[in-house]
C-alpha cells in the first residue's frame, strides 16, 4: 500500500517559535479547518474497485445492446448516437475548416464545440485495427475503470475501503451511466477529475496541475476543476506552504483549456472559434436565467410530460442539498465540496441542453454519492450486490430510451 501524506513544513532544531497573538490567517484557517486526510492507494483494493465497476457496467451495457438489437437497431448505429457520433466524426475526419451560420446569423451545430483529446485517443486506438465505434468503447471503458480506481482511492481514504467500494458500485449503477459505456467523454473526464482531486487533497500540486490540464483538453467543464485548483493552491500559497509547487501547479492547470480553445480556433482561422461554435448549443453562462425559465415551464406543466424533466428538477435540488451536507462535514476536504458546488453552479448557470444536465453531473456524482455510500456500505454484501445489479438493469433499460427513443440529446 502506498500512503501519500501531504508534505509537512520544514523546521530547524535550532529555531524557536515565539508565541504571539493569532494573525488573521490563523483565524480564517481555524474557521475553515477540515480533518486531515491522508491519501492511501492500495493496488489490490483499486483492482477490486475496478472489478466492481466492470461487473456492474457489464450488466447495464449488455442489457442496452440486447434490447436495442431486439428492436432492430444495429450495434454500430447505437454506438454512433448523439455525442458519440460527433466524437467519432472528429476522430475519423478531423474538425471542419469553417464555421457555418444560419440566415439569422446564429452558428449551426458542429463538431467544433467538442474538445480534441478524446477523439485523438479514439483515433489512436483505431490504429490497432479496431473500428472507430469499438475504439471509442475501448477508450470509454478503460478510462471509466481508471476513474473507478480513483473514486475508491479518494472516498476510501476519507471514509474507509467499504465506503469506497459502495461509492464505486452506486456510481456504476447510476441512471446516466450509459455515458461511460459508449464513445462519450464522461469516462475520460471523470478519470482526470478524480485523480486531480486526489492530487489536490494530497497537496501534490504539480500532478494536480498536470491532471487539470489533461481534463481541460477533454471537456470545457474542466473550468470547475481549474477553479478548485486556483482556490486550493492559492490557499497553500497564502499559508506559505509547499514552496514553489503551488505556483507550478497553477501555471500548468489552465494549459489544457487554452490549448483546446486555440487548437479549435486555428481550424477555422479565428481565436474565438470554439466560443462561437458553442453558441449553437446554448452553453453561454447566464447566471441561471435559462434554467429558471426551464424549471418554470416544468413545474407549471407547460411542457409535454417527459420523465427526464423530473430527473433534472430532482437533480438540481439534490445536488444543492449535497453541497450543503458535505460543507458541514469536516471529514470531507474542501476541494471536493468546491468541485461539487462549482459543477452545480455551472449546471444551473448555463441554459443549453437542459435534458443533458444529469449527464454533465455524472463525473462529479461520486462526490455526492459519498453521503449515500456510507449507509449502503453497512448493508450485507448480498443486499449490496442486489442493489447494484438492479441499478445496472435500470440504467441499461433507461439508456435505450435516452439513446434511441426520447427526443433531444441525453
TrEMBL record:
Its main location: endoplasmic reticulum. GO terms for molecular function: alpha-1,6-mannosyltransferase activity; GPI mannosyltransferase activity. It is found in: Endoplasmic reticulum membrane. The keyword Membrane applies. The keyword Metal-binding does not apply. Keywords: Endoplasmic reticulum, Glycosyltransferase, GPI-anchor biosynthesis, Membrane, Transferase, Transmembrane, Transmembrane helix. Pathway: Glycolipid biosynthesis; glycosylphosphatidylinositol-anchor biosynthesis. GO terms for biological process: GPI anchor biosynthetic process. Residues 1-24 are annotated as: Disordered. GO terms for cellular component: membrane. It is a multi-pass membrane protein. The chain crosses the membrane at residues 46-67, 132-151, 190-214, 221-238, 244-264, 309-328, 334-353, 360-376, 382-406. Residues 1-10 have a biased composition (Pro residues). This is Integral membrane protein. It comes from Streptantibioticus silvisoli.
Amino acid at each position: 500500500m502506498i500512503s501519500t501524506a501531504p508534505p509537512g513544513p520544514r523546521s530547524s532544531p535550532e529555531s524557536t517559535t515565539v508565541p504571539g497573538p493569532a494573525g488573521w490567517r490563523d483565524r480564517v484557517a481555524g474557521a475553515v479547518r477540515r480533518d486531515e486526510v491522508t491519501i492511501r492507494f492500495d493496488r489490490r483494493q483499486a483492482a477490486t474497485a475496478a472489478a466492481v465497476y466492470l461487473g456492474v457496467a457489464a450488466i447495464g451495457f449488455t442489457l442496452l445492446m440486447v434490447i436495442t438489437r431486439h428492436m432492430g437497431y444495429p450495434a454500430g448505429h447505437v454506438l454512433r448516437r448523439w455525442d458519440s457520433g460527433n466524437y467519432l466524426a472528429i476522430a475519423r475526419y478531423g474538425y471542419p475548416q469553417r464555421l457555418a451560420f444560419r440566415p439569422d446569423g446564429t452558428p449551426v451545430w458542429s463538431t467544433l464545440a467538442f474538445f480534441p483529446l478524446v477523439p485523438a485517443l479514439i483515433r489512436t486506438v483505431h490504429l490497432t485495427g479496431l473500428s472507430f465505434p469499438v475504439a471509442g468503447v475501448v477508450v470509454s471503458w478503460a478510462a471509466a475503470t481508471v476513474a473507478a480506481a480513483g473514486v475508491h482511492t479518494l472516498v476510501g481514504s476519507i471514509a474507509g475501503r467499504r465506503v469506497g467500494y459502495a461509492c464505486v458500485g452506486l456510481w456504476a449503477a447510476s441512471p446516466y451511466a450509459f455515458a461511460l459505456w459508449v464513445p462519450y467523454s464522461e469516462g475520460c473526464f471523470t478519470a482526470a477529475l478524480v485523480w486531480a482531486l486526489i492530487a489536490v487533497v494530497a497537496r501534490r500540486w504539480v500532478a494536480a496541475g498536470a491532471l487539470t490540464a489533461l481534463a481541460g483538453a477533454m471537456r470545457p467543464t474542466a473550468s470547475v476543476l481549474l477553479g478548485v485548483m486556483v482556490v486550493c493552491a492559492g490557499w497553500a500559497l497564502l499559508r506559505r506552504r509547499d514552496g514553489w509547487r503551488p505556483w507550478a501547479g497553477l501555471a500548468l492547470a489552465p494549459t489544457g483549456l487554452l490549448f483546446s480553445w486555440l487548437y479549435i480556433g486555428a481550424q477555422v482561422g479565428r481565436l474565438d472559434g470554439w466560443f462561437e461554435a458553442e453558441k449553437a448549443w446554448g452553453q453561454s453562462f447566464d447566471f441561471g436565467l435559462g434554467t429558471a425559465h426551464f424549471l418554470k415551464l416544468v413545474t407549471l406543466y407547460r411542457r409535454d410530460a417527459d420523465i427526464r424533466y423530473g430527473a433534472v428538477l430532482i437533480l438540481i435540488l439534490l445536488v444543492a442539498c449535497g453541497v450543503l451536507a458535505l460543507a458541514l462535514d469536516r471529514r470531507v476536504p474542501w476541494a471536493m465540496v468546491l468541485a461539487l458546488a462549482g459543477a452545480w453552479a455551472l449546471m444551473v448557470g448555463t441554459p443549453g441542453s437542459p435534458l443533458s444536465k444529469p449527464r454533465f453531473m455524472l463525473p462529479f456524482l461520486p462526490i455526492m454519492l459519498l453521503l449515500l455510500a456510507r449507509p449502503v456500505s453497512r448493508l450485507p454484501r448480498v443486499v449490496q450486490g442486489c442493489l447494484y445489479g438492479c441499478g445496472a438493469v435500470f440504467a441499461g433499460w433507461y439508456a435505450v430510451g435516452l439513446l434511441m427513443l426520447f427526443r433531444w440529446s441525453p
